[in-house]
Design brief:
The structure holds two protein chains of two kinds.
Chain A (H helix, E strand, L loop, with lengths): L32 H6 L10 H15 L1 H9 L11 H6 L6 H16 L1 H5 L1 H4 L6 H10 L8 H5 L6 H14 L5 H13 L7 H19 L14 E4 L10 H15 L3 E3 L16 H18 L3 E4 L3 H15 L13 E2 H10 L15 E3 L3 H6 L8 H13 L30 H22 L3 E4 L2 H10 L10 E3 H8 L18
Helix pairs in contact in A: 2-3, 2-10, 3-10, 5-10, 8-10, 13-21, 14-15, 16-18, 18-21
Chain B lengths: L1 H29 L15 H14 L1 H6 L1 H21 L9 H30 L1 H6 L2 H22 L5 H13 L9 H16 L7 H7 L1 H4 L12 H7 L4
Helix pairs in contact in B: 1-9, 4-5, 5-7, 7-9
The complex binds iron/sulfur cluster (SF4) (3 copies).
Chain lengths: 507, 243
């Protein structure tokens, strides 16, 4: 798997030939019985799985307007057929968004529409056979819930809603996915996706304090469970152990330090990502979200800031108040929740931060809009702030910034290929293929502007790119955190004078 | 006899259309959207949302972003359909409303535009492999039905005109329950028969996309989750007993 797979210069959005069935064998590992039951799902495929699944479809159409309207409204116009990065990367027609929806729609029509009941052949209705269930398991786990298709559909049909529903139905009959359900178990028990216990976390944070002090001469704090501070920071747990995530965490800490605003991390809610979203379960999502509320109450903070993570930011921005609100015990003069980029930008506007851009002169940078931020949330008070604010921060911290082709960024951004619960090794083939359009867009700016690095603000994007970049002929370190650039360039009061070789250290 | 059959067909078709559509809309309105899922960047106010929907309905904004060919054929067909429908108001209004007379000259060309749009869409459904893959027999039949309606209408205009005064009397008679005879021209009967069929299948088919757009949460929600709490009725029930 270490082979370089694609170094062609090609149009990132080039439409492939259809290759029916070529990804049918791509399936995640099934969840073990104990992970299933821990979340209240059957441990293994139930004997009456068929009837249970149909009943679940009936239940979902009473609970979710999106599910019902989207299954009814599609006119098969085909506008979405070339919009999914997994289709662009594989050519498997079942990765076309409408075809992915059809996997569920065919069964829905068979049981819940007049035409499907009496004239199934006419409207493409099908029974839920073991083969169809197999297709569900394969192809609903080849959707990163990135919502690119929903931008282009004339009715706004969001395939992510359908694949979430598909996974919810499968969970409810005992056919869960190991990766997501195992991680959810850890969050519920320990408080984060990695199962990182409090002691290990405390040790990591104090190491970071030493490390930053050694590099800068300034003691920047990384407080854990400190009561009565201003800000609770909830970040994806990868920020505490993975590269380039940690470099981003150091950036947040420096910003808090320089802004003079007290903050803390909570060991009860050490995880911003909400995997309940991936499996489409409102209930599970709600339980995960409540941990953040509990931590904020317990620590008596006034503000809630979320670290760099795409799905986490969508879950926080769009869903947190619904799931775990109202947050009237927080200081409502600030947005609840607030993104770390919004926070940093606010401090920049207030004149609290100074940057020495030359510290990033070894970097020629581009920016990957994480899709869940781009299409499922906002920053600032104007629509599109989620595009402008991170770019404003990067431009303030770097001299050399270049955007990728317009049809591959902002609302049309291409997923990294690893989102939505797919960041697991057994799905590497589809992850690599799904990254292809983004990698081609990156290659364009590398050719045209000598771009060397790409910043992202999502834990999954960063992890995914770290593993797929080499397959496309890039350096694995070419992916950086937005706040890593901030960390490199920010001027700390009382820092020791820079030495010549310090500049390249953290990129 | 002929008039009676068609009169009955139209009463049924109208009843099915009105009841079926009303039922669908009621269903969509009743089922909640428990989470905020507008596709962003999205308007932050209700006024903004209304504008977004208006752009979708009038200009097919998202489709334009997606694919210029589908947009061209689709928009052409729908715009022409609206014009033709307006033109047809002259067969039920007496005296004919003035603005209906005003659209009359365009309405005639609209028939051709409609046909062109439909044939363009159909050609893509047949020859573009991605779209052929996602098409079911019903998708082709729906196009055939619409092509049949447009073609028979144009045929009456240019090849075999019918007694339009009598047709108007028939439809006005339907409205006032004072039944009148219907000319037995084959093209007319085909045209009217297909239209009645279309009205009947509307609420039971993908033609539901028309009301669907207005109920699509990715399009009809304002992007304001931090400003206003959003809670579905069934989700409210989970709130009790929370620590
Ligand atoms: S763009 Fe929308 S309506 Fe058209 S085929 Fe795709 S999902 Fe269906
Ligand atoms: S949500 Fe994204 S991954 Fe899923 S079908 Fe749509 S474009 Fe593909
Ligand atoms: S991992 Fe990143 S790019 Fe991929 S779906 Fe999530 S936010 Fe989007």
């Amino acid at each position: 798997m270490d082979r370089v797979t694609d170094t062609e210069i090609a149009d990132p959005l080039a439409i492939p030939e259809l290759a029916p069935g070529c990804m049918a064998a791509s399936k995640p590992y099934p969840a073990a019985a104990n992970h299933q039951t821990a979340l209240g799902f059957p441990g293994e495929l139930a004997t009456d799985w068929h009837d249970m699944a149909i009943a679940k479809i009936g239940e979902l159409r009473e609970k979710y307007r999106s599910f019902r309207v989207y299954l009814d409204a599609c006119v098969k116009c085909g506008a979405c057929t070339d919009k999914c990065h997994y289709f662009l990367g594989t050519g498997d027609p079942k990765n076309m968004p409408v075809a992915r929806q059809d996997l569920l729609r065919q069964v829905y029509r068979r049981h819940f529409t007049l035409a499907g009941k009496y004239l199934p052949w006419l409207v493409g209705a099908k029974d839920l056979t073991p083969e169809v269930l197999d297709d569900w398991y394969s192809y609903f786990h080849q959707c990163s819930q990135c919502r690119r298709c929903s931008v282009f559909c004339p009715y706004g049909i969001d395939t992510a809603e359908i694949s979430m529903a598909g996974r919810e139905i499968m969970d409810s009959i005992g056919k869960g996915q190991k990766y997501s359900n195992e991680i959810l178990g850890k969050v519920m028990k320990i408080g984060n996706n990695l199962g990182l216990p409090k002691k290990a976390l405390a040790a990591t944070l104090s190491d970071l304090e030493d490390e930053v002090e050694e590099a800068t001469g300034v003691r920047v704090e990384f407080p854990l469970d400190r009561k009565g501070v201003e800000v609770l920071l909830v970040s994806p747990s990868a920020d505490y152990f993975a590269e380039p995530h940690i470099a981003g965490l150091i950036g947040y800490a420096k910003v808090f330090h320089q802004a003079g605003i007290s903050w803390t991390i909570s060991s009860h809610a050490t995880e911003a990502a909400n995997f309940g979203m991936f499996i489409g379960s409102y209930d599970v999502m709600r339980k995960v979200a409540l941990r953040i509320r509990e931590a904020a109450l317990d620590l008596g903070v006034k503000r809630l800031v979320i670290g760099e993570c795409g799905h986490a930011w969508r879950a926080a921005y769009s869903f947190l108040d619904t799931l775990a609100g109202p947050f009237d015990f927080l200081d409502r003069r600030h947005p609840v929740p607030q993104h770390i980029c919004e926070f940093t930008y606010e401090q920049m506007q207030a004149g609290k931060l100074r940057f020495d851009k030359s510290k990033n002169d070894h970097v020629r940078l581009t920016f990957h809009d994480s899709c869940n931020v781009a299409r499922g949330s906002r920053m600032g008070d104007r629509p599109g702030g989620q595009f402008d604010i991170p770019r404003a921060i990067l431009r303030a911290a770097c001299n050399h910034f270049f955007d990728m082709a317009p049809e591959t960024i902002k609302e049309s951004t291409l997923c990294c290929g690893g989102g939505g619960g797919l960041l697991t090794d057994e799905l590497m083939a589809v992850r690599k293929a799904g990254a292809q359009p983004r990698m081609r867009a990156l290659r364009q700016v590398a050719e045209d502007h000598g771009v060397t690095h790409m910043a992202a603000m999502c834990a999954i994007c960063k992890a995914q790119f770290s593993s797929v970049l080499p397959h496309y002929g890039f350096d694995r370190e070419a992916i950086v955190s937005v706040h890593q650039m901030v960390s490199n360039a920010i001027v700390l009061d009382g820092a020791k004078p820079p030495t010549d070789d310090a500049a390249g250290d953290e990129a | 006899m002929l008039a009676a059959v068609f009169a009955a067909a139209y009463y049924v078709a109208f009843g099915v259309l009105a009841a079926g559509l009303g039922y669908r809309i009621w269903e969509y309105a009743r089922v909640p959207a428990p989470l905020k899922i507008p596709t962003t960047p999205a308007p932050t106010t209700t006024g903004g949302v209304a504008l977004r929907l208006l752009r979708e309905v009038v200009l097919f904004e998202s489709l334009f972003k997606a694919n210029k060919w589908i947009w061209l054929f689709g928009w052409l067909f729908h715009a022409a359909l609206v014009l033709s429908l307006l033109r047809h108001l002259r067969y039920v209004t007496q005296p004919v409303w003035e603005w209906v007379t005003a659209v009359q000259p365009f309405g005639v060309y609209a028939g051709f535009a409609m046909l062109a749009g439909l044939l363009g869409l159909w050609a893509r459904r047949i020859w573009v492999p991605r779209i052929r893959y996602i098409s079911a027999p019903s998708d082709h039949l729906m196009l055939a039905l619409l092509v049949g309606i447009a073609a028979s209408g144009l045929g009456m205009k240019y090849l075999a005109p019918t007694d339009i005064v009598a047709v108007k009397a028939f439809f006005r008679g339907l409205v006032s329950f004072d039944w009148q005879p219907l000319p037995a021209d084959p093209l007319l009967l085909v045209h009217l028969g297909l239209v009645a069929l279309l009205m009947i299948v509307f609420p039971y088919s993908k033609l539901l996309h028309a009301p669907g757009l207005f109920f699509s949460p990715t399009r009809n929600q304002a992007d304001n989750p931090r400003e206003r709490r959003h809670l579905a009725h069934w989700a409210r029930a989970l709130e009790s007993g929370r620590g």
